[in-house]
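Input structure tokens:
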């Protein structure tokens, strides 16, 4: 972030947060039962997703 241009603070309010669940599979085979190698639980919801996107784009610190 450039020191000459201060970014105003941004607040997000997530009234209905959720839990995003991701699974990793070694391969997907049509019409076969597949078991996940790993799973990941992340906080989600529109407000948190906006915050995450702003941070990844270096718009906010």
């Amino acid at each position: 972030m450039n020191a000459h241009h201060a970014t105003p603070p941004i607040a997000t309010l997530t009234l209905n947060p959720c839990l995003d669940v991701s699974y990793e599979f070694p391969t997907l085979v049509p019409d076969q039962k597949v078991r996940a190698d790993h799973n990941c639980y992340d906080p989600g919801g529109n407000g948190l997703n906006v915050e995450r996107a702003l941070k990844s784009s270096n718009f906010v610190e």
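The chain is about 20% helix and 25% strand. Residues 1 and 58 are 7 Å apart (CA to CA).
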